[in-house]
Amino acid sequence: MRSAILRLARAAAVVRRIIGVPDYDTYLAHMRERHPDVVPLTRDRFMAIQMQARFEKPGARCC
Amino acid sequence: MSKVVSAVVWSLVAVTGAGAIAWLAISRGETISAAWLLTAAVCSYVVAYRFYSKLIAAKVFALDANRATPAERLNDGRDYVPTNRWIVFGHHFAAIAGPGPLVGPTLAAQFGYLPSAIWIIVGVVLGGAVQDFVILASSIRRNGKTLGQMAKEEIGPVGGFTALVAVLGIMVVLIAVLALVVVNALRASPWGTVTIGLTIPIAILMGIYLRWIRPGRVLEASAIGLALLVVALYAGRAVADNASLAPMFTLGGVTLAIAVMVYGFAASVLPVWLLLAPRDYLSAFVKIGVVVALALGILIVLPPLNMPALTQFTDGTGPVFAGKVFPFAFITVACGAVSGFHSLIASGTTPKLIERETDARMVGYGAMLVESLVAIMALIAACVLTPGVYFAINAPASAIGTTAASAAAAVQQWGFTLNPSEMTLLAQQVGEKTLLSRTGGAPSLAVGMAHLFSRALGGGGATALWYHFAIMFEALFILTTLDAGTRVGRFMLQDLFKHIWAPLGRVSWYPAVLITSAVFVAMWGHFLYQGVIDPLGGINSLWPLFGISNQLLAAVALCVGTTVIIKMGRARYAFVTLLPLAWLVIVTMSAGWDKILSPDPKLGFIAHASLLRAATAAGTLPAGVKTTGDALRMAFNDYLDAAVAAFFMISVVVILADSLREWTAVLRGRKPVASTEAPFEARVAVAGD
């Protein structure tokens, strides 16, 4: 049961990354590992910044 | 697998593919199965991927799985994140796939299936996929630099600046023509208008859900959004069936055009989380779902291609758009074979995610092959229709009149058969008042898809739902490109205008945001409006402009690619990019020349303007033009279109000349062969390798 849920969660994470949802968990893991002295952005702040940046340069979406 | 077995298998694949292509080319007079087209395409892709992309990976770039990529070296947990190659592939494909490969082949089917089929297959293998791959690999080696930065650094400031301005021009034409496709699909269609209209509040609802109700639960919100899309589909039908509501949502072209402009403006100024991001997620799901559904539909039905291999319109007299098969088939197919726009994505998000250098082959070359397969499927869906029906839907009223009888007469004159009752019946089946002259490609593709889906799943009664489902997803794609594009265009303008007055560049100052958004919407809105009121249907003049601009961007990308290859000291392999570059320059130049200077008023902008001016001077008006004022406005727009085409052509010449100067300098030894790559760093093995 637990492994099924885990597998589902991993599949969901894959789908999220394919459709381009900013990945907060990866960011948090990265900050904890590489920059433990820095306070990471909150989830809201991180999502807002990443989403903004996505639609600022050509190449967000194609024809 | 032993070498012998491998050689036998690959020879078989190659022979099968070559046989299918030969069969496509020599079949005349009888309909052939779509299976031939699919076989020809898939075998060609597989062989090209195995051999040609390997040559580029090994000989040109010497991609090295042990060389650290920017995702590893610059890992910041945000933009630079080493990512599994299948995820990058999916992400990259979702980003490059759009309405272009669906609409282009549908329009180009007026020449018959053969020219488009050959160009989609050959163009992608030797051109489109090469461009995407080379730019992706170049960007990976340069810490994920964008095409614009690489153009500036590799070629020079002149080439770089021209590329920048050209991208802005391309965005304007691209958004205008895509908006026109949507307007033409929704014109006088209450069902379509209501369904598409509802996708906007659905997205906003998702945005609110993600912001306040269940923050970050994107998949939940998307599931709700997708369910609501189905509700919207039925709501549209209910409105269309309701005698008092239907007229309220039966809108004309101009009203729809204004609505689309308001939407584009809103998307540019509203917060991203409210509208753009949720729509983007929804669109990505629908996109992948529809590609899979279309593939299944075609595989199950394996329909016959009712369109002949070649029609008489290869001589340039076609009603869908003017111009001979050369160069216009190559301009019209556009994104399914070569798409310059992809170079912006291959040098945008994707290079920052690649975990191993060698993944670039699958992501860059491979994803473009899949995109090309989508174009082949769109071509099949268009050729499922009989030529009579295809031309009745895609030819403007000026060519076929406004009644089923006049359309049937015109189509019969072209040598195809069409019964007037056939069009009336078909319109009834798909739940529309009329299907005559629904130019732009979307309606005829939707009819083809509805035909495939209802045959695959049985039950002809569902045709109307399938038709509007197809229209909904096409419009969803297009509006996602339009809203994101308008916002991006606004940022580009702010970047440009800040040199005139600094505060205009401030992205968080509302007056600047509103002004630049309005200016950008007005830029594409002008072309859209002109297309909507054009009696020739608008697509006739705008789609070739879009095709030329998109292929121009591809030429820029291939110039950058060639420069990179020469500066790496691999000049003997520069043919990889020089071959498609030479072809694209020939095609864009001759198409641009025809569009500007052809003496045929149906084809040449200036000849058409002269015709209008001569007619008004003589006191007569050409068919479909109501007032002298309209005629003079149309003449002005012809000159404007000619100027835009000229601008694109001059841009090609400038960038090509600048590149040639750089290439000869390096090859003659005046400049050292020095690559601008980031220096080699070994990859650190990670757990899970």
How is the secondary structure organized here?
The complex is a heterodimer of chains A (63) and B (689).
Chain A (H helix, E strand, L loop, with lengths): L1 H17 L5 H11 L8 H12 L9
Chain B lengths: L2 H24 L5 E2 H27 L9 H4 L11 H12 L3 H9 L4 H29 L5 H9 L1 H30 L3 H24 L4 H24 L11 H17 L6 H26 L2 E2 L19 H9 L8 H5 L12 H25 L3 H8 L2 H4 L3 H10 L6 H10 L12 H16 L5 H35 L12 H24 L5 H29 L7 H23 L7 H13 L10 H40 L22
Antiparallel strand pairs in B: 1-2
Helix pairs in contact in B: 1-2, 2-6, 2-15, 4-15, 5-13, 5-15, 6-13, 6-15, 6-23, 6-24, 7-8, 7-23, 8-11, 8-21, 8-22, 8-23, 8-26, 9-10, 9-12, 9-21, 10-12, 10-21, 11-21, 11-22, 12-15, 12-20, 12-21, 13-23, 13-24, 15-20, 18-19, 20-21, 21-22, 23-24, 23-26, 24-26, 25-26
Mean pLDDT of chain B: 93
Secondary-structure element string of chain B: HEHHHHHHHHHHHEHHHHHHHHHHHHHH
Summing up helix and strand content along with how strands pair, one would put the structural category of chain B as mainly alpha
Low-confidence stretches of chain A: none
Structural class of chain A: mainly alpha
**Strand line-up of the largest beta sheet of chain B:** 1-2
- What's the overall geometry of chain A? flat
Listing every helix as H and every strand as E from the N terminus to the C terminus, the arrangement of chain A reads HHH
What's the number of extended β-strand segments of chain B? 2
- What is the rounded distance between the termini of chain A? 43 Å
Cα-atom radius of gyration of chain A: 15 Å
Helix content of chain A: 55-70%
Whole-number average pLDDT of chain A?
88
Largest interface: A-B, 38 and 56 residues
Please tell me what the overall shape of chain B is.
globular
Number of continuous helical runs of chain A:
3
**Uncertain residue ranges of chain B:** none
| Number of beta strands of chain A | 0
Which range best describes the helical content of chain B: under 10%, 10-25%, 25-40%, 40-55%, 55-70% or over 70%?
over 70%
Give a quick account of the main beta sheet of chain A: strands, pairing sense, barrel closure.
none
